[in-house]
């Protein structure tokens, strides 16, 4: 009897412990019989469905289901009893429940079957996932918004992995580089780069991963990209680094600056041309107002004195001479004024075309053949490049430079002239915009040279360092500078008296459309 009491006490204690666990469980626990009638419901389940336990016990469990599950539940149980095949028993799945107020919510339902001595029951564990589904919906909405922003962004957006393989590319980036988005996925990012960046990119990535030294990540800079058709264009690239759970990715934002660079190049050329033009105009105006107008004013002044003081003493022929002189002086004054006004107007230049500078140089040397033979000049040359230019002005440029090199020779030595070119970039990584790439033409001679303190003067109109010793108007080098500036460059020189001079002419390889 004592053992029976202990067993009974243990059984009661165990049942109380089990009830306490069920009553304090966070998830809902519902027990139904084989007909679907609710036998027990813990407080969590009652709270989830918005009922008091006493309101729901004895009701068919389908009261907790929205349609169509509510209407189908009885037949589902009957089918299970008949076939033993259950859709959810022993499996668990996400279903919809209906609260007392009629609202519908999602929950995870797992059902277990228990066979007692005298009956069969089913226990359902209810885990409310409303908050989780709301969070998922919010995350989906956020992802959709981000995706919409990425897909609709004007700027290109590209994501690569640590190896430089493209994982994502938005429509703007694909369109900018002339590809379909699918064509780029899985490709190395260097397919979008011209040389030398294409060959250097992998080593740059390796250098960053090993040393952590940043050249562009988190910094941003102007670079050059290459389209599918091989054409290149400038863009501003900013790259962000993202640490994911298991790996690192890089996202590049591509902003096309083609038009900006074209505008900058046009502005640079306009500014350079305006500065040169203003300086030349000032020089010309000074010469016109002083060197030309001063003697003219004297002619007019003494002519006026003749008219006022000596006119009556002159013969008729003398009076006629004075009148004609004053009229001529007046016409000359008007002519000078008209010339000044004309100098302020730039005539419409011809369009640029592809010009082989080597061919132009050959033609100029041919034109100067007689002078070259008479002076014993020796011309060394290496091939010059093809650029976009105005052919006539290129011819004029070389004609002036070669003529100068021959003319300003030393008396005791035949002229030796060396002509060669260097192709350069104004800035590293930029080659797409007209003006980024230039050629530097060097014209070296062994002539009389000059003191470099006069460097600025020699390119000004009417400036001559050698007085009347050599023929010329002093306008040749000013013309050379004007041509160089118009072609996106400039001209300078290095020299030593008695040693020789090297003229360095910079010309852009390509030009914006005019």
UniProtKB/TrEMBL annotation:
Q: Which SUPFAM superfamilies does its entry note?
A: ATPase domain of HSP90 chaperone/DNA topoisomerase II/histidine kinase, Homodimeric domain of signal transducing histidine kinase, PYP-like sensor domain (PAS domain)
Q: Which residues form the PAS domain?
A: 14-84, 142-213
The residues covered by the PAC domain are: 91-141, 219-269
Q: Which residues form a coiled coil?
A: none
Q: Name one Pfam family in it.
A: HATPase_c
Q: Is ATP-binding among this UniProt entry's keywords?
A: no
Going by the UniProt record, its keywords in alphabetical order are: Kinase, Phosphoprotein, Transferase
**Could you tell me which species this protein originates from?**
Pontibacter toksunensis
The UniProt record lists the Histidine kinase domain at: 287-511
Q: Which reaction does it catalyse?
A: ATP + protein L-histidine = ADP + protein N-phospho-L-histidine
Tell me yes or no: is Glycoprotein among this UniProt entry's keywords: no
Q: What is this protein called?
A: histidine kinase
EC assignment: 2.7.13.3
């Amino acid at each position: 009897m004592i053992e029976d009491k202990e067993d009974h006490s243990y059984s009661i204690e165990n049942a109380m412990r089990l009830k306490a666990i069920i009553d304090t469980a966070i998830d809902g626990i519902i027990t139904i019989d084989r007909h679907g009638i609710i036998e027990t419901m813990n407080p969590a389940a009652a709270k989830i469905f918005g009922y008091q336990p006493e309101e729901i016990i004895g009701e068919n469990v389908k009261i907790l289901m929205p349609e169509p599950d509510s209407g189908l539940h009885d037949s589902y149980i009957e089918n299970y009893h008949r076939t033993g095949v259950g859709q959810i028993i022993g499996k668990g799945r996400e279903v919809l429940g209906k609260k007392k107020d009629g609202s519908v919510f999602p929950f995870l339902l797992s059902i277990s079957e228990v066979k007692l001595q005298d009956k069969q029951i089913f226990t359902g564990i209810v885990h409310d996932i409303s908050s989780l589904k709301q969070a998922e919906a919010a995350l989906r909405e956020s992802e959709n918004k981000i995706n919409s922003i990425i897909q609709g962004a004007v700027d290109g957006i590209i994501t690569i992995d640590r190896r430089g393989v493209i994982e994502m590319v938005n429509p703007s980036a694909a369109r900018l580089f002339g590809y379909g988005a699918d064509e780029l996925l899985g490709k190395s990012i260097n397919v979008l780069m011209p040389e030398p960046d294409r060959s250097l990119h992998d080593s740059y990535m390796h250098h960053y991963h090993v040393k952590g030294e940043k050249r562009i990540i988190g910094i941003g800079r102007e670079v050059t990209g290459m389209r599918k058709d091989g054409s290149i264009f400038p863009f501003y690239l900013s790259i962000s680094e993202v640490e994911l759970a298991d790996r690192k990715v890089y996202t590049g934002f591509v902003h096309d600056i083609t038009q900006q660079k074209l505008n900058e190049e046009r502005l640079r050329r306009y500014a350079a041309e305006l500065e040169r033009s203003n300086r030349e105009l000032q020089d010309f105006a000074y010469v016109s107002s002083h060197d030309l107008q001063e003697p003219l004013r004297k002619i007019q002044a003494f002519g006026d004195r003749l008219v006022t003081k000596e006119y009556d003493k002159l013969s008729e022929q003398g009076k006629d001479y004075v009148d004609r002189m004053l009229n001529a002086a007046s016409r000359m004054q008007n002519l000078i004024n008209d010339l000044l006004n004309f100098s302020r107007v730039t005539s419409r230049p011809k369009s640029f075309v592809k010009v082989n500078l080597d061919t132009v140089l050959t033609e100029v040397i041919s034109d100067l053949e007689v002078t070259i033979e008479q002076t014993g000049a020796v011309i060394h040359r290496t091939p010059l490049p093809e650029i976009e230019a105005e052919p006539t002005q290129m011819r004029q440029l070389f004609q002036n430079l070669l003529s100068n090199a021959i003319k300003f020779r030393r008396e005791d030595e035949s002229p030796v002239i060396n002509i060669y070119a260097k192709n350069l970039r104004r800035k590293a990584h930029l080659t797409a915009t007209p003006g980024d790439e230039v050629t530097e033409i060097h014209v070296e001679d062994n002539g009389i040279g000059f003191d470099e303190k006069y460097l600025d003067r020699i390119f000004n109109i009417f400036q001559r360092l050698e007085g009347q010793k050599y023929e010329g108007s002093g306008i040749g080098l000013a013309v050379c500078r004007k041509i160089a500036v118009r072609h996106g460059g400039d001209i300078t020189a290095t020299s030593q008296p008695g040693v020789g001079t090297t003229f360095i002419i910079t010309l852009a390889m390509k030009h914006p459309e005019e």
